[in-house]
Every structure is written in structure tokens, then in C-alpha cells.
Amino acid sequence: MPLARFSLTALAFAGLSAVAVVGFTLQSIAQSAATSEAEAPAEPSQQIFIMPRSGPFAPDTVAVPNARVIAAWARSGHSDATSESFTHWNEDGEIPPSCGTCHSGIGFRAFHGLDDGTPGPLTAPIPIGGVVDCDTCHNPSISRVTEVTLPSGIAHPVAAGDASCTTCHQGRAAGATVAKATGEKEPDTPDAELRFINPHYALAASSSLGGYGAGGYHYPGKDYSGRFLHAKPVATCVSCHDPHSLDVAEATCLTCHQSGDAEEIRIARQSYDGSGDTGKGIKADIAANAATLKQAIVDYAAEVAGKPMVYNGERYPYFFADANGDGVIDEAGGRAVAYDAFTPRLLKAIYNWKFVTADHGIHVHNPHYALELLYDSIEDLAGPLGMDFAGLGLLR
Ligand code: HEC
Ligand code: HEC
Ligand code: HEC
Ligand code: HEC
Ligand code: HEC
After folding, report:
1. Is 222 in the pocket of ligand 5 (CB under 6 A)?
2. CA-to-CA distance for 147 and 80, rounded, in angstroms?
3. What is the mean pLDDT of residues 185-194?
4. Ligand 5 center–CA 358 separation, angstroms
5. Above 50 in pLDDT, residue 19?
């Protein structure tokens, strides 16, 4: 922690110096913020003071332009150097190339060639200890990034503000990853080659692009809603999220919705979860169908795949074997046994369940796509389970 606090002070210092000396451009601000630690301000004319000199003005009433931004960022997840997202590799001492792009600003810059290297997948490990620093989003060359390739292979054009978010919040797998793994295999036969495919976390950029982004597994013969355009004033990540605090202001929603609470908002006049309750937010329909799908997954594992399953959301890879069905995860050599009786049908349903629940804002980012993926996955499991699917009263 002392280290983190030190660099924050350095950032504050450099951020302010940029404002006062070179004027107010985003790139110059953050550029100097990022390179600050090594460089002491050179000339006396560039000496900047974080706090105004004492005088007739109380320091706490004097506006310090960058302080607000830095404070907001410092309180956000992006700067939280102690989170699992930034400490996961501490024991290894370095972040492998396949993970570095999104788990450190250094990796992000290397991936896009902003460090003067060649853009493309990382070829070398990245040092531990990085966060989503200022120079991730404010690198002077970030405007060169005009499209971002998603895990589905789609090259999606991005506007300046969203280029960074789309790179890191796109997840790590797509429906195509699942289709490739399952191929032409028998749908209900457990296959030792099949392993859980993790769509990864906080994949808002993928979910919001819906069927076009193809992050979810798409069942043959079904149509999927594309990008959730929502409404023009709220079409980009940073039109809702403050890029530094990452918060979403309720006022942003109140211009169009009666509530500013995302969990309460509903436009749909129909009930998707069979409850008939259209007074609750659309989030509740998505949550209810996700719960129905999860139950169907557990039932299918025991009854069709022939090996009961235990889910533990705190522990990778989340789905574990429970051969005797006693509700306790099996162990072998002191280690939890990952679920190992996946059938193609089970793998697809689990992938979609995980995809939908991995984005905690999917009710805002793309409610339609979430509801479609859940409906189709439940329907697909219902057949071999002998479930009364129509009786659930779900809508797609
Ligand atoms: C495309 C960008 C991207 C790549 C590549 C990536 N991650 Fe992540 N990862 C994220 C994001 C974004 C989060 C933040 C999720 C959140 O808000 O909790 C995350 C979160 C995590 C977490 C924390 C999960 C939790 O439960 O809090 C772990 C662990 C993790 N990633 C491991 C990995 C590993 C291992 C690799 C490489 C094999 C990897 N990541 C590659 C984007 C990525
Ligand atoms: C995740 C990306 C991201 C990170 C990290 C980030 N910024 Fe920003 N910043 C942006 C975006 C996008 C805008 C433009 C906001 C807009 O258009 O409303 C912006 C705007 C700004 C502005 C001008 C607008 C304002 O709100 O005052 C300043 C100053 C700034 N950033 C400084 C910083 C500093 C200093 C850091 C590090 C402490 C930082 N930023 C980290 C994305 C980021
Ligand atoms: C270099 C990769 C990277 C970039 C660029 C990035 N993020 Fe993140 N983001 C992450 C990681 C990693 C986390 C998880 C941080 C943690 O767990 O502390 C995260 C967390 C978040 C969260 C959850 C906040 C929390 O407290 O858990 C939101 C919201 C978010 N990012 C939005 C954005 C937006 C909007 C942008 C673009 C302006 C953006 N991110 C750009 C990697 C990135
Ligand atoms: C229409 C406004 C809106 C847009 C556009 C939007 N978000 Fe969100 N996002 C939200 C809201 C509201 C939440 C919180 C939902 C809740 O808590 O009920 C959220 C949640 C998130 C989370 C999860 C935060 C957490 O605490 O787990 C991430 C990550 C995120 N958004 C990233 C993004 C990215 C990246 C984009 C652009 C691809 C984006 N968002 C576009 C409104 C928006
Ligand atoms: C400029 C107007 C506008 C703003 C601002 C706006 N929305 Fe919306 N919102 C809409 C419209 C229009 C729809 C219906 C879009 C559709 O289904 O195609 C919608 C749909 C939604 C839905 C899905 C409801 C359902 O039943 O399908 C949610 C959730 C939502 N908005 C949340 C938010 C949040 C959270 C904010 C603020 C961060 C916000 N919106 C800001 C216009 C707006």
C-alpha cells in the first residue's frame, strides 16, 4: 500500500503540472501523468504546486482541475491494486502474455502497439503490479485504435472513448468457441474431451453487441437481437459510466425513465419469466430465467449426463463433480474435481448461463439478448429432461 500511495501522489503532481504548464488537453495530461514517476519537473518555470500557496483563499475552496478526476479514479476498481484482477499472478511474479492485455496498462499498451512496438497479441509476459492507469485510456496514440477484434473474430469499429473499454471488457470466448469444441459430437453423451469454457468476466462490450458480437452460444435456427442501441444519448460506454469513477449517475437515466435505479427500470409490457409480474424491473425477469436455467443445468447433469454437479461461484472452474450426489464436491488427491461429464448440450447451456451472469449490468447493456440466450438454453435442456417447457410460460 505505501507504494501505491506514493505513485498516486506522483500522479497527482504530474497531472496538475500538465494542466498549468501545457494547457488542458487530455492526452498531454495523462501522458505526463504516466511518465511522471521517473521525471522530476526540470525547470523552475515548470514548478507546480499541488496546493495553492497560503493566502487569502482557503485551499479547500480553490478548484484543482485534475484532483477530482484523480480522486474518482483512485476510488474505482480500475486503480484497486489489491483486487484479484491485479494480484492474481503475484506468486508467479509476472503476468502471462494471454492475460496481460487487460490486467495491466502496460499489457494494454503493448497489445495496441502504443509502446512503439508492433500491435498484436502479446509475445512476452508483463510485470505484475500494474492497474488500469491513466495512460491506458489517454495514451497519445490511442486514437490509432479504430477497431477492436472480439473473441468471435468480428472486427468492431470503435469511437475514441470506447476503444479502451471494448478491448478489456469483451470477454475471452465466443459462441464459436463452444461450437468448435462440441462439433458434431452426440448431444447427450458425456465426452471426456469437453471442458468448461469460461466466457470470462465483466464482458459488457461483448454482451452489448448482442447477436452481432456473437459472444453467446447461438442455437441453430434462432435469431438473436443485435447491438442494444438503447437510445442515442446513451449509446456508448462513457455516455453512462464516468470513465474515472466508473459510476453511472441516476440523472443520466431520469431524462427518459421514471426511475434512475437500473434494477427498477422496465419498458417491456410482457412478462418473460412466466410470473405475470410486469411491475418489477427487467433485471428481475433475467435473474428469474437465469435461476431456472441453472436448476435445469443441475438436473440435466444428474439425470441425463449421469453425474451430479455442484456449483461454487467462488471457486474456479465453478462447476464440480459430485458423483454420489451428496451435495459435496468430490476430491481427488486433496483437490476439488472439476465437473468432467460435460455433454455438448450441457456445455452450451452452461456457457450461456455464465455469459449472461458474468455481466452484472446485462439488464442495461442488452436485456433482449440476455433473455433470448436464457430462453433458448432452457428450451434445449427441457427436451431430454422431459420438462414441461410450455408450462413455464416463458417468453423469448
Ligand atoms: C480481454 C481482456 C481480458 C483478458 C485477455 C483476460 N482477462 Fe481476466 N478479467 C478481465 C476483466 C475486465 C476482469 C474484471 C472482472 C470484474 O470486474 O470483476 C477480469 C477478471 C479476472 C479475474 C478476477 C475474477 C474474479 O472473480 O474477481 C481473474 C482471476 C482473471 N481475470 C484471470 C485471467 C487470466 C488467468 C487470464 C489469462 C489466461 C485473463 N484473466 C485474461 C479481462 C481480461
Ligand atoms: C478507463 C479509461 C480512463 C482512465 C483509466 C482514465 N481516463 Fe481520464 N478520461 C477518459 C475519457 C474517456 C475521458 C473523456 C470523458 C468525456 O468525454 O466525457 C476522460 C477525461 C479526462 C479529463 C478531462 C475531463 C474531466 O472529467 O475533467 C481529465 C483531466 C482526465 N481524463 C485525466 C485522467 C487522469 C489524470 C487519469 C488517471 C488518474 C485518467 N484520466 C484515467 C478515460 C480514462
Ligand atoms: C486495461 C483493461 C481495462 C480497460 C481499458 C477498461 N477496463 Fe474496466 N475493468 C478492468 C478490470 C481488470 C476491472 C476489474 C477491476 C477490479 O476488480 O478491481 C475493471 C472494472 C470495471 C468496472 C467495474 C467496477 C468495479 O468497481 O468493479 C466497470 C464499470 C468498468 N471497468 C468499466 C470500464 C469502462 C467504461 C471502460 C472504458 C472507459 C473501461 N472499464 C476500461 C479492465 C479494464
Ligand atoms: C445505458 C447506460 C449504460 C451503458 C451504455 C453502459 N453501461 Fe455499463 N452499466 C450501466 C449500469 C446502470 C450498470 C449497473 C447495473 C446495476 O447495478 O443494476 C452497469 C454495469 C456495468 C459493469 C458491471 C459493474 C459491476 O459492478 O459489476 C461493467 C463492467 C460495465 N457496466 C461496463 C460497461 C462497458 C464496458 C460499456 C460499453 C460497452 C457499458 N458498460 C455501457 C449502464 C451502462
Ligand atoms: C434518451 C433516452 C434514454 C436514456 C437517457 C436512458 N434510456 Fe434506458 N431505454 C430507453 C429506451 C427507448 C428503451 C427501450 C429500448 C429498446 O428496447 O429497444 C430503454 C430500455 C432500457 C432498459 C430495458 C427495459 C426493458 O424492459 O426492456 C433498461 C434496463 C434501461 N433502459 C436502463 C437505463 C439506464 C440504467 C439508464 C441510465 C444509465 C437509461 N436506461 C437511460 C431510453 C433511454
Report:
1. no
2. 28
3. 97
4. 20
5. no
